[in-house]
From TrEMBL:
Name of the featured protein: Methyltransferase type 12 domain-containing protein
Superkingdom: Bacteria
Ranges of residues in domain Methyltransferase type: 274-364
SUPFAM superfamilies registered for this protein in UniProt: S-adenosyl-L-methionine-dependent methyltransferases, TPR-like
Coiled-coil spans in chain: none
Length: 435
């Protein structure tokens, strides 16, 4: 019966598995494996308190069970109890020093507790004890890439990702990480090889396809493909706020809303506002005092879900921005967009749609990454994001009808320790629509 329960559990039939674990426990009260796996299952079903009780019961009978300590640690980690999680991983390792999952989890939990030196020691031990384990090299590479002190750290990270791929030929996650590390060192030619390799393994994956173009290995699209945006941001949604605010010093929402609020009337909750590419909703609370009605639109369902949890929006829609604007004529007084048009190369369709979606005297306010130079042009950089020159942005806005345009320069965030310079753009629709 336990065997059948485990099989059902492994194949994702959680109702059947739970019933079978419970039957096993009726037949043999306290059976430690049934308690342990039922605990894991309860956690999967968001019943983490019950899960912890069950695994603790199992451990009373089998206190040397390294996997059970490790799984208990995972539940504590995922419910935010990092201190308890660390203790569980240490117990797992005391029971079995070869429990590599517990060792990698211990390193991750030390890193999450902002103890990087200790984490580094544990990653080093993991690579030494399990040199054939791709995950060990991948985690070490990520650690080095995320804690860059000198250029050699990125070189070391690159070596780790290459080792990870050697250990596990199916490890596309390391190919992804390798491509980013090569970008950090401006090694576009090598990155092209990595993305081609990834595409050979996953021909339908939009991420290597986009990144190959970004590194100069394929035709540049007019804007990032919808599938690429969805894939990247659905995966990024859980860690977006932490990554951008803590690690990348992201300020676009603050800078943009500050510039916009300076030209608006004092806040009177009187405007209909669209947050275009709202992501996790960082702009929402900043513009809310001015909004009678606040809409948010984004291609990524994962990001929209985060914005919904943050609250403050009247309506949140999962849709492609240009199409959504085109479907809503003369609908808003303000369309604002922080760091979303960096996924658009050709700005004409989205800007003319924004113009048509605004009411007379309406404001379009957005940030984007700056491309140096006086020429009228844009490029897809090897970061995967588009950059536009000031004169290009100005010309496109004028061409679609915006009479009054101001563009200022600002630091929007950091990348690889360096400031990312962007444009903060305010454009106003006149009293009489053109065209
Ligand atoms: C860097 S995030 C910025 C999110 C938010 N504006 C902020 O400042 O925190 C870019 C967002 O643009 C969205 N996005 C990119 N291209 C889009 C498109 N064509 N239509 C709708 N959303 C898009 C992404 O899904 C992502 O949430």
């Amino acid at each position: 019966m336990l065997h059948r329960a485990i099989e059902a559990h492994q194949s994702g039939q959680l109702d059947d598995a739970e019933a079978l674990y419970r039957k096993t426990l009726q037949m043999q009260a306290g059976q430690p494996d049934a308690l342990h796996f039922l605990g894991v299952l309860c956690h999967q079903r968001q019943r983490s308190d019950e899960a912890i009780r069950l695994i603790q019961m199992a451990l009373r009978t089998t206190p040397q069970h390294a996997d059970a300590h490790n799984n208990l640690g995972n539940i504590h980690k995922e419910t935010g109890n990092l201190v308890e999680a660390e203790a569980c991983y240490r117990m797992a390792l005391a029971c079995n020093a070869q429990q590599h999952d517990a060792l990698s989890n211990l390193a991750l939990v030390l890193e999450a507790q902002l103890r990087p030196e200790e984490a580094f020691e544990v990653y080093t031990a993991l690579v030494a004890r399990a040199p054939q384990l791709g995950r060990a090299h991948y985690l070490m590479g990520m650690y080095l890439r995320n804690h860059v002190n000198e250029i050699e750290d990125v070189e070391r990270a690159i070596a780790c990702f290459r080792n990870a791929i050697r250990c596990d030929g199916k490890d596309v996650r390391s190919l992804d990480a390798l491509g980013v590390a090569l970008y950090m060192l401006d090694r576009d030619e090598e990155a092209i090889g990595v993305y081609r390799d990834w595409l050979d393994r996953e021909p339908d994956n939009p991420v290597p396809r986009h990144m190959l173009a970004a590194c100069g290995g394929d035709r540049v699209p007019d804007r990032a493909d919808d599938a690429y945006v969805r894939d990247v941001f659905d995966k990024f949604a859980d860690s977006f706020d932490e990554q951008l605010l803590k690690n990348l010093d992201y300020r676009a929402p603050q800078i943009l809303t500050k510039a916009l609020i300076e030209v608006l009337e004092p806040p009177a909750a009187s405007l209909d506002v669209l947050d275009a590419g709202c992501g996790t909703g960082l702009c929402g609370p900043l513009i809310r005092p001015h909004a009678r009605h606040l809409d948010g639109v984004d291609l990524s369902g994962g990001m929209i879900e985060k914005a919904r949890l943050r609250g403050g929006y009247d309506e949140l829609v999962v849709a492609e921005l240009t199409a959504y604007l085109q479907a809503n004529l003369v609908a808003w007084d303000v369309v604002l967009s922080a760091d979303t048009l960096i996924y658009f190369g050709d700005l004409v369709p989205v800007m003319s749609a924004a113009y048509a979606a605004l009411r007379a005297h309406g404001w379009l306010a957005f940030t984007m990454e700056a491309l140096d130079g006086d020429e009228d042009r844009f490029e897809l950089s090897s970061s995967g994001r588009f950059r536009h020159t000031r004169s290009h942005v100005e010309r496109v806005l004028n061409s679609v009808g915006f009479g009054s345009v101001t563009i200022t320069e600002a630091v929007l965030r950091k990348e690889v320790g360096k400031p990312v310079i962007g444009w903060v753009v305010l454009a106003r629709k006149g009293a009489v629509a053109r065209g």
